[in-house]
Structure of Radical SAM protein:
Amino acid sequence: MQNGHPDTITPLTASDPSSERLQRLVSEQKSRKKWLLVQPVSNTSMMVDSGTVSMPLNLLMVATLAGELFDVTFIDERLGDTVPEDLSGYDVVAITSRTLNATKAYAIADNAKAQGKIVILGGVHPTMLNDEAREHCSSVVYGEIESVWTELATDVLLGSMKEVYKASALKPMTNMRHPDFTHALQSKRSKKYSSLIPILATKGCPVGCNFCTTPTIYGKNYRYREIDFVIDEMKYHQERLGKEKINLSFMDDNISFRPKYFMELLEEMSKIGVRWNANISMNFLHKPEVAELAGRSGCDLLSIGFESLNPETLKSVHKGSNRLDNYGTVVSNLHKNGIAIQGYFMFGFDNDSEESFQLTYDFIMENQIEFPVFSLVTPFPGTPYYDEMKPRLRHFDWDKYDTYHYMFEPEKLGGEKLLENFVKLQKEVYKGRAIMQRMKGKPLNWVWFVNYMMHRFTKKLTPEMYL
Ligand code: B12
Ligand code: SF4
């Protein structure tokens, strides 16, 4: 037990021979090997890594496992901390990467490799493009670290690394351990982290949108933790911070994919007084009792991928969870229960026309969407959409894969009209008058502040920024 929180995973079980071997190797270590864990900052020109940043739960999970056997230094470059040029103090350099920071991750990896370190790359981008990533490191971890940890840690101790670590089966998540936040709080700059506490209840999303990496990596799998363990982790944070009203942010791909689990989780959360937000798909949000329970359990905001108001586009990307005739009902159900909506809208599809922008504007204004987020459709490497669009892609510079660069010429609109309308829509939605209309009657809270920041930001936008 740790501060009343049960240690739920037993990675070193006596019954598993590979774990036994790892245990023996650990006990034979003369001194603990030193790991440097890095969250690279991206080189992208847009707002992506600026201001307050969210605590990287992915790298924290790596640190939590590694910290049991090794000495861990945790560097999150997005805080302003930098990786030293001279890495002589470390044995292993392990770096997480998404596509938008892959170039930076590779530069750090190349430097570590040149200094003879064991270099491990993990995260979405190395998983999707492991041949490319292998050029820059000793080993690539495919997917989540938990499923390969015993083998990886053993090989580090033996000094004999494999090129790729890929589990034949995913480990159940039911009793996943809670992350050790002390690693992320090592930095003097950790105050730059958002006050939202990252937490995970489920993993995977079988909806199967063709632009998303989740179905490619985790397939049709949808796993979840025991509700008791999730609640226990929340109580641990309440205790750690000395207050009941803590703000949690679920890192789940789609927290509501299994309605029964979701409703049970919310019922339990409603008893402990936390506030929370999450990504969610629309699959059953049209049912009033779901929004009612979400509100009662402390939900402040839900992030919903509306993506498009064009049924042809939704069909073309296989977004089966979105039914246009439900959009309005979903929004009003949530609003009735005091839940704000972060609505994601994508542009740049072949079916988009000038009318798509007007339709989106009208939808946002009529439904008073509090926090609309606009991005340009980005075929991420490894997804079916990437394979389909590859011959038409304008960029293979990963710094531009931040969803704020125009990736291909959409058939109906052409590039110029796409960007002109994309910029105009953002400016219109975040004009002072439009903000007042969308936010009318809403409580004066951080959502207003975000709108104010977006107002300032969108004023400066030009089509050229997205080229
Ligand atoms: C929650 C989330 C966010 C949150 C929080 C991000 C954060 N601070 O971590 C917010 C809302 C801020 C966000 C923002 C964005 N996101 Co996002 N996000 C996610 C989501 C749904 C879950 C990520 C997560 O934390 N999962 C829980 C952790 C525990 O699991 P994990 O990430 O899979 O990590 C495991 C493994 O990858 C592995 N691992 C990871 N790193 C390492 C490192 C080593 C060394 C090893 C060995 C293993 C390892 O072990 C980990 C533990 O099991 C993912 C989808 C997904 N499943 O990846 C998209 C996803 C990562 N996001 C994506 C995108 C595009 C974005 C944005 C660009 C969107 C935008 N336009 O603003 C920004 C970019 C932010 C940034 N600077 O990186 C894409 C990235 C695609 C790509 N190829 O890069 C994803 C994959 C969704 C998609 N469309 O496919 N995101
Ligand atoms: S609903 Fe969201 S998480 Fe699920 S496959 Fe589609 S984009 Fe990915």
Q: What stands out?
A: The two ends are 53 Å apart (CA to CA). The first strand starts at residue 34 and ends at 39.
